[in-house]
Amino acid sequence: MMDDQKMEVAMGHLLRTGVLIAAFVVFIGGVLYLNQNRGPRPDYATFHSVAAGLRSPVGVIKQLPTGDSNAIIQLGLLLLIATPIARVIFAAFGFSAEKDWLYLIISLIVLAVLTYSLLDGH
Amino acid sequence: MNTLEFSSWIFLSSILAGLLGSLTGLGGGVVIVPVLTLLFHIDIRYAIGASLVSVIATSSGAAAAYVREGFSNVRIGMFLEIATTLGALLGAYLTLIVSTHAIGIVFGAVLLYSAYASFRSHSDVAHRQPNPLALRLRLQGSYPAPSGPESYVAQNVPAGFSLMFVAGTLSGLLGIGSGAVKVLAMDQAMHLPFKVSTTTSNFMIGVTAAASAGVYLSRGYISPGLAMPVMLGVLIGSLVGSRILVNAKVKTLRLIFAGVIVLLGIEMIYNSVTGRL
């Protein structure tokens, strides 16, 4: 039987591993990015949104095979965004193992909000 | 300035912001956004996009360390995340409607409040009055006190839940973790022990930020070229900061840094009002 403390320790490790993987991917993308962009610094003073292909998980994955460094960085950032989502999924499993149905439902509500945010087009 | 130089300056500033954020306990987001907008003249939407992903990194990265202490409460966190994630969605949508000046002013106000909140005195007294709603929702637990495990029960659940919604909205609107408001909700409204509040808040910050990250991403606020040095820098800075925290006397450091936060807050508000942000 899994108790709360064990569950949290496991979650903590899960999160840290996720962050390290994400940071590594962002770093690789960053090295490529600095290699591919040797010109003057990009202008961030006026907002003109990011290229359409980099604005959704599906778009980023489609763009990966081109070797675009922006897509690799974005993949790392998506992995990062996935770490807290993984935590909620993990907690949902933990609660159902404890037969805590109330908290299983609460976890699923939180998960639904997160999924809506990431997958809906807005 | 070429791209490499620019990225290096952003990276170094982000390390400092992460360091400052973790030493003050305010989180990297509240420091990096003013730095990016005031110092580098970056549009606040790009700034909050980059900040938000770094907030997720620090929250998830520090989780293992916090968990080991045994203070955080997974049920209280999960229950309140319903409020923070819904608030975060609202906040992220608000960035589309609200002017950047207004965002700047709200940001400045939150900075000032956070600086003030970092100096409030805290008691670790556990409240154990049976609260029917809290008990039905299992919002209770125990934490390792010097004299052995102390149990506690949450109070004022609706007030805490509402404040958490506000914390989530601010997080989504400003691209920050809004840990100060989360701690306010748990520590002041729900009368949870301070250590339980801060560690549970850290856990919740990542989930809250993930809820607005989707909206930010699809609106194009998350620019890879900017988010890359910010996220890596803030992560390194806050990891180093948490190491220092264990060893150093932080009282004077806190005082200095709170002063910096106040100045940033005033500058944010001033620049927003005069239309320079």
Overview of this structure, please?
The complex is a heterodimer of chains A (122) and B (277). Chain A has four helices and no strands. Chain A is mostly helical. Chain A has one domain (4-38, 52-119). The mean pLDDT of chain A is 90. Chain A has helices spanning 4-36, 57-63, 69-97, 101-119. Chain B is mainly α. Chain B has one domain (3-273). Chain B has eleven helices and two strands. Helix content of chain B is 75%, strand content 4%. At the A-B interface, helix 1, helix 3 and helix 4 of A face helix 1, helix 3, helix 4, helix 9 and helix 10 of B.
Which features does this protein show?
heterodimer, A: 122 residues, mainly alpha, 4 helices, 72% helix, elongated, B: 277 residues, two-stranded antiparallel ribbon, 11 helices, globular
Describe the structure concisely.
Chain A has 122 residues and is mostly helical. Chain A has one domain.
The helix count of chain B comes to: 11
Global morphology of chain A: elongated
Task: Kindly report the oligomeric state of this protein.
Answer: heterodimer
Overall number of domains of chain A: 1
- Extended strand count of chain B: 2
Order of helices and strands of chain A: HHHH
Rounded to the nearest angstrom, the radius of gyration of chain B is 18 Å
Q: Kindly, what is the distance between the CA atoms of the first and last residues of chain A, rounded to a whole number of angstroms?
A: 41 Å
**Beta-strand share of residues of chain B:** under 5%
Count of individual domains of chain B: 1
Percent of residues in helices of chain A: over 70%
Which parts of chain A are unreliable, with pLDDT below 50 for 5 consecutive residues or more? Answer: none
Percentage of residues in DSSP E strands of chain A: under 5%
**Order of SSEs of chain B:** HHHHHHEEHHHHH
> Quick check: average pLDDT of chain A?
90
- Which structural class do you get from the secondary structure elements of chain A? mainly alpha
How many whole angstroms does the radius of gyration of chain A measure?
18 Å
Q: Number of DSSP strands of chain A?
A: 0
